[in-house]
Amino acid sequence: MRYIALLRGINVGTSGRIRMDALKALMEQAGFSRVETYIQSGNVLFDSDLPESAVKNAIEHTLKEGANISTTAVLRTAEELHALLLGCPFSPEQIERVQAVNTEGESFYVCLLPQEPDAQQREKLAKLEPGEDMYELVGRDIYLLVTQSIRLSKLAIRLQKIFPEMTNRNWNTIRKLNDLSLL
After folding, report:
1. For the chain, which residues score pLDDT lower than 70?
2. 2-7 and 43-47 strand pairing
3. Longest C-alpha distance within the chain, in Å?
4. What is the CB neighbour count within 10 angstroms for residue 105?
5. What is the gyration radius of the CA atoms in the chain, in angstroms?
6. What angle do CA 60, 67, 169 make, to 5 degrees?
7. The CA-based dihedral angle spanning residues 48, 174, 145, 111, taken in that order and rounded to the nearest 10 degrees
8. CA distance 48 to 86
């Protein structure tokens, strides 16, 4: 099965630093095949016959033991990533409108959760006031449109408090990972 690992907090700030060739080598040592990385933010594509929970445990253990990095590995299969792209809940007009307002960079992100939200998390999510930003929960993914930098978005900050193990990727990265997963 083709997996995509989206590693939380890799090469952000001063912690979780690892070169992509070293990350690739660790993943190969963990027994994964056809390993490739994409950009410096902890995106790894690979093949494995193991179930998701075993893959997640192997990655997190390997990074801790081999690079002293404690992280959350959020996984999607190639099929799940493709479905995520096809299931975009925002219209092109909504995306364009938000991007026109945001002069600080990217506007469209996906917050990837390791598992579907529980009842308490769903309740907190339902109470969020998005302001000018927009979000939509679909399974274990939150599509997010922000009108300013994601680092300044009150909605993004609140989402991180509700889902501390989530990791974010911009839409262009999601599209590129999808393209790479099909090779």
Report:
1. none
2. antiparallel
3. 47
4. 12
5. 16
6. 55
7. 20
8. 24
Query: CB under 8 Å to 179, separation ≥6 — which residues?
Result: none
Q: Do residues 41 and 10 touch, judged by C-beta distance below 8 A?
A: yes
Nearest Cα neighbor of 44 from 81, 70, 13, 14 is 81
Pairwise CA distance, residues 117 & 37, whole Å: 28
Does an H or E element contain 4, and which?
strand 2-7
> For the residues of 53-107, what is the DSSP string, one character each?
HHHHHHHHHHHHHHH-----EEEEEHHHHHHHHHT--S-HHHHHHHHHH--SS--
Model confidence pTM above 0.85: yes
Q: What are phi and psi of 137, to 5 degrees?
A: -90, 125
Residue 153 is which amino acid?
S
- What's 128's DSSP letter? -
Nearest-CA neighbor of 73 among 126, 120, 134, 32? 32
Give the model confidence (pLDDT) of 93-105 as tens digits: 999 999 999 988 8
- Domains of the chain, by residue range, sit at 2-79, 83-170
Give residue 105's pLDDT: 86
Name, in order, each residue with C-beta under 8 angstroms of 40's C-beta and a sequence gap of 6 or more.
Answer: 10, 11, 20
From CA 4, how far away is CA 110, in angstroms rounded? 14
**Predicted pLDDT of residue 70:** 95
Fold of 2-79: Alpha-Beta Plaits (3.30.70)
